[in-house]
UniProtKB/TrEMBL annotation, chains A, B:
Lineage: Bacteria, Pseudomonadati, Pseudomonadota, Alphaproteobacteria, Rhodobacterales
Residues covered by the HTH tetR-type domain: 17-77
Gene Ontology terms for molecular function: DNA-binding transcription factor activity; transcription cis-regulatory region binding
UniProt DNA-binding residue ranges: 40-59
GO biological process: negative regulation of DNA-templated transcription
Protein name per the record: HTH-type transcriptional regulator RutR
Domain of life: Bacteria
Organism for this UniProt entry: Planktotalea frisia
InterPro entries: Homeodomain-like_sf, HTH-type_TetR-like_transc_reg, HTH_TetR, Tet_transcr_reg_TetR-rel_C_sf, Tscrpt_reg_YcdC_C
Amino acid sequence: MTESPSTTKKAPSRIQQRNRTLILDAALEVFSSQGYRGATLDQIAKQAGLSKPNILYYFNGKQEIHVTLLNQLMTVWLDPLKEMNPNGDPIKELIGYVHRKLDMAIELPRESRLFANEILQGAPRMGPHLSAGLKPLFDKQIIVITRWMESGKIARSDPAHLLFSIWATTQHYADFAAQTEVLLPDRQAREDGARAFLDQLFTKLLTP
Amino acid sequence: MTESPSTTKKAPSRIQQRNRTLILDAALEVFSSQGYRGATLDQIAKQAGLSKPNILYYFNGKQEIHVTLLNQLMTVWLDPLKEMNPNGDPIKELIGYVHRKLDMAIELPRESRLFANEILQGAPRMGPHLSAGLKPLFDKQIIVITRWMESGKIARSDPAHLLFSIWATTQHYADFAAQTEVLLPDRQAREDGARAFLDQLFTKLLTP
DNA sequence: TCGTGTCTTTACCAAATGGTAAAATTTAAT
DNA sequence: ATTAAATTTTACCATTTGGTAAAGACACGA
């Protein structure tokens, strides 16, 4: 029986694994720079070095590629937040989180833009994941941070907005790169400056 | 001679003014929520209550509507930055700027998202305006802030990244509303919390 | 009210785009 | 080597979408 591998759940062949990876890589490139509607299967196919029908042999449609990508990268994206250790030194943990997020924005700007695009459009294909995936983790870490504040180890502020501000300031360097690159053209200086500034900003906020 | 008013530069009639406004309003709604490629002339037409050909009577094409919108709103968007008074009290000026930007994000989320969409895609239709419009103003205000720091009236930090962090944290509430609304559903609490937090964040940073 | 120019609608079109059918080719186990 | 299954290509198709032509409706000054 000849059936598309996109529905089959049996062991994927070497070719299948290679091509699905190829497609998802290409899709990340295209979706992150063009948005969901701006991206075309032809662009993804060309970027992947495959034909359009070939791509539809591995995925049931454009939407499935996009959703697969979002699901797959969600884990990577939330990892730094999970890694915060409730028993570590609060300032170290939070400043460390800031640095890890900034590193991710610099090293994985496509992933950042992929999510930014999706959220900007109202998260039409990710809404459930926000409630089911992000929200619980968010609430959990809010509690951790609140405890840290109550223990007096860091200054009191609103933990939720603290996280928002960390996300906003770090992802800004990926999502608004077209702007920051015009305003601060020297890449190395910009990245070093960002690190130093965010360190200072959040250290001052958190130090009791 | 019958000619489209989009090329004519003569005094626009009452109807012309009304309909161009109607179209630009509709276009703001659609472009900001769907992005440039995601927006269709049919959507804009429906939103404006006009027919598609009628819309193309007033504008020469989709791109012209978009560019007109960007140009028109650029002024409004940069206004708060211009308003910073070099002779005022530095902390008051900067904190005031933060509050004005946050108010704009809350009151004009569509404008914020319109620009966010455009920058995210690499500013393909706005690139020149960044260099020609924003850059000079940015550089000028960097100098003002630098002087404030040198005078000892505010703590030293990187002025460019200070502005980036103000933009990032305030616009976050408009651009990532789909996310913040899931994580902090109570609108009033969210907005009040944002104001208080950003006030605290930047006051701590700037106080010498 | 008449006529000229302004505005709107109807009826289209060509290109782009997501997707499919089925033939052709390649892979791999026997 | 043979063959059955997996993979890729070729040739399409229906819909959507930005855009146009031209006829029709309307406004308004003389």
